[in-house]
Automatic annotation (TrEMBL):
It comes from Deinococcus arenae. Keywords: Hydrolase, Metal-binding, Zinc. Pfam families: Creatininase. This is Creatininase. Belongs to the creatininase superfamily. Signal peptide: none annotated. One of its GO terms (biological process) is riboflavin biosynthetic process. Its cofactor is Zn(2+). The lineage of its organism: Bacteria, Thermotogati, Deinococcota, Deinococci, Deinococcales. One of its GO terms (molecular function) is hydrolase activity, acting on carbon-nitrogen (but not peptide) bonds, in linear amides. InterPro entries: Creatininase-like_sf (IPR024087), Creatininase/forma_Hydrolase (IPR003785).
Length: 233
């Protein structure tokens, strides 16, 4: 149940019998040959498919996150950590004020994880709330499925290359890139990051067969659905 298909009265009625909702978090950043909105597209899609048939509303994905490392790639937009945490505070507090008490955050971008650490502060101020922070792509079952297919999987590589993140007419390179030294990369300014990283893929193939990707996606949706249904303390 996507919020864009509801009006305020429908949400008010829903809140008489349901206190769960899903808030996807994305980012707008370089993903090599893939869409700049890859993290946003994946977070919202896995959230919507996981909630399908449950009656739990899924809010639109927040399309901006924390990604200063990629600032030298045109189209990448980054929020300051302080801005991001204030934004999360406003969103979660707004949901709580309306009556949502169990909030599943489906995060699609690793750079957003300062929010996960901050979440304890928000929960201390809202002791009647329960919030799960779910990094969908590296959650245990989903990451195990990725590793079964190919252990060399990383940012902007094959593991994010789904039919809905590809761009028409943009071919995927055939090379299998060696893994970049991520720790060293994080010490560099954005211009140097682009020099070292090139197209933006951290390492691995750019694409794998869709039949393999579908198996991973099915696991991701099932794992997210399990949290929505049974993950509450």
């Amino acid at each position: 149940m996507h919020i864009q298909g509801m009006n305020w009265g429908m949400v008010e009625d829903l809140l008489t019998r349901e206190d769960r909702c899903v808030l996807p978090l994305g980012c707008t950043e370089q993903h090599a040959t893939l869409s700049l909105a890859t993290d946003t597209l994946l977070a919202e899609r896995v959230a919507r498919e996981a909630a399908e048939g449950s009656g739990v509303p899924v809010f639109p994905a927040l399309p901006y996150g924390i990604t200063p490392t990629f600032a030298a790639y045109p189209g990448t937009l980054s929020l300051r950590v302080s801005t991001y945490l204030n934004l999360l505070d406003d969103l979660l507090s707004g949901l709580h004020a309306q009556g949502f008490r169990r909030i599943l955050i489906v995060n699609g971008h690793g750079g957003n994880t300062p929010g996960q650490g901050w979440l304890g502060e928000w929960l201390a101020r809202h002791p009647d709330a329960r919030v799960q922070w779910h990094n969908w792509w590296n959650a245990p079952r989903t990451w195990a499925a990725v590793q079964r297919v190919d252990p060399l999987a990383s940012h902007a590589s094959w593991m994010e290359n789904f039919p809905w993140t590809r761009l028409d007419g943009v071919p995927a390179p055939e090379e299998r890139k060696p893994m970049v030294d991520v720790a060293a990369l994080r010490q560099l300014p954005p211009v140097k990051v682009r020099e070292v990283l090139g197209d933006g893929n951290y390492g691995g193939l750019h694409r794998r067969p869709d039949r393999e990707m579908q198996l991973i996606w099915q696991e991701a949706v099932a794992e997210t659905r399990a949290l929505l249904e049974r993950g509450w303390a």
